[in-house]
Amino acid sequence: MPAYEAVIGLEVHVQLATKSKLFCSCPTTFGQPSNSNVCEVCSGMPGALPRVNREAVHFATLVGLATDCTINDSSVFARKNYFYPDLPAGYQISQFDLPICEHGHLDVDVDGASKRIGITRIHMENDAGKNIHAQGENVSYVDLNRAGTPLVEIVSEPDMRSSAEAVAYLRALYAIVTYLGVCDGNMEEGSFRCDANVSIRPVGCPTFGTRTELKNLNSFRNVQRAIEYEIARQQDALADGEKIVQETRLYDAVKNVTVSMRGKEEAHDYRYFPDPDLLPVRISAEELARWKAELPELPQARVRRFVAMTGLPLPEAEVLVQSRRMADFFEEAAGLADPRKVANFMLGAMLRELNAGGGSLADCRMTPAALAELVNIVDKGLISAKIANDIFADLLRNGEMPEAYVKSKGLVQISDSSELEAAVDRVLADNPAEVEAYRGGKTKLMSFFVGQIMRATKGKANPALVNELLQRKLGQA
Fold first, then answer.
1. 460 vs 300, 350, 360, 388, 409, CA distance in Å?
2. Is 417-473 CATH 1.10.10.410?
3. How far apart are CA 12 and CA 128, in angstroms?
4. Which end of the chain is more exposed for a tag (fewer CB within 10 A), N or C?
């Protein structure tokens, strides 16, 4: 059996965070009663004329600029013809041969190696509605609230060779569109979703194999699992002498399998032609320059700066920039305290508490100034690192400033040598066998003594001073 390699391309659909739809003034608000955000245009009524939402053009251009695409000064909307109940006009308004952005790329890091993924095109299109299949009833309903919602579709080159590369690329895109503020990134609500095109070929073969398109990939984990399953399925099929069929397959996350959905269409099946109701979209040089000046520092540049600022390994710094909110929080706190120690608290105690509670940074009441103050009062010895870790959940939840909190709770660290010396003497007197063993060469017992003293002082003893006193009294100073 020959060795195979995967060939993967992604088609990522990003819902643009405009207040109104792409070709009408209906709101894009999620969760409204069915068919309440609908008008003659987005419901496909004959004679209703679309008009382009300029903010959607603005947002699409920002995505193109952030991915080093060529921005076309003129692009054309086309009708993509197919029939489905949630597509009221019988066609989707998309872009075909003249998209708004082309020929970009994105660099991703996988296992310490950089990989460049080409971006073929970014085009605008309106979303379809939603079919609702009622359980227990032999009937389906159509909700057109989503119909007409503005999307950009980001089509990659087939440059990825593993599920890990695909997920790294997808995460990088997600970070970009959320940093730009052009998408809310809510995958559960369908704001960011993708289809994966997967094929395999013998290693070294220059031609591509037959590809399948995977749908229903609504999380980074499901993208990885679906691609891995599909690669294995195609390998098994070829080993059994079967041919791979070009088709669209649906991913079942519960069973972790892909199942055939329908034959895969080609572009000519959609009978594209320019939409006669819409003029070409034109972007002036002045407009493009103004939009380019809006670009914030993007995640890849920010992570490199955070690595230089903190000395953190790249994977840990990447966690800090996984969302703009997280990166901004770190940046503000790091301006008031030691950046590496701020990062350690965020990557450790903060993420632990957020994950345990199922919340996000937006839900916590701790401010960057409060986190910086916590780092600083540990540094100046007001409390120990252990106490800081113990009280972190309370601070995250109630939003109190750390110094006032520890003073009100009587948690200030004991740094008075005479008070600590008495505690050390008591512990040594209560454990004569361990003292003798330590002096006989079992120096690992030092941690035992420190633990006993910390217990006796309810964790408030200054650890450095405890160690100094112990070493002196045990004859090691």
1. 41, 22, 31, 11, 12
2. yes
3. 15
4. N
Residues in the chain: 477
Question: Within the chain, how many helices (H) and strands (E) appear?
Answer: 16, 16
Amino acid at 298: L
Q: Of 411, 406, 423, which is closest to residue 466 (Cα–Cα)?
A: 423
Contacts of 277 (CB under 8 A, 6+ apart): 49, 50
For 459, phi and psi rounded to 5 degrees? 80, 5
Token pair 């603005």 is found at 58
Whether residue 196 is predicted with pLDDT greater than 50 in this model: the reply is yes
Assessment of whether the complete model's pTM goes beyond 0.85: no
Q: Are strands 247-252 and 212-217 parallel, antiparallel or unpaired?
A: parallel
Maximum distance among all Cα pairs of the chain, rounded to whole angstroms: 97
**Bridge partners of 71?**
101
What is the tens place of the pLDDT at every residue in 63-115? 999 999 999 999 999 999 988 889 999 999 999 999 999 999 999 988 888 99
From the list 383, 388, 384, the residue with the least C-alpha distance to 346 is 388
Backbone region of residue 311 per phi and psi (left: phi > 0; alpha: psi in -120 to 50; beta: other values): left
Tell me if 93 sits within 8 A of 23, measured CB to CB.
Answer: yes
Across the strands, what pairs with 204?
none
Tell me the C-alpha distance between 95 and 78, whole Å.
5
Q: Hey, what amino acid is at 319?
A: V
Q: Please report, for the chain, the start and end positions of each structural domain, with discontinuous segments joined by +.
A: 4-289, 299-408, 417-473
Separation in Å, CA 232 to CA 188, 212, 215, 257, 468:
27, 13, 17, 11, 60
Among 114-128, 200-214, 228-242, 453-467, name the one with the lowest average pLDDT. Answer: 453-467
Which residues, in sequence order, are CB contacts of 274 under 8 Å at separation 6+? 76, 77, 78, 79
Cβ atoms of 399 and 366 within 8 Å: the answer is yes
Burial 142-173 (b: 16+ CB within 10 A, else e): bbbbbbbbbbbbbbbbbbbebbbbbbbbbbbb
Mean pLDDT of 37-54: 94
3-state secondary structure of 4: strand
User: Structure tokens of 362?
Assistant: 């937006």
> Coil, helix or strand for 159?
coil
**Mean pLDDT rounded to a whole number for the chain:** 90
Residue corresponding to tokens 């579709």: 153
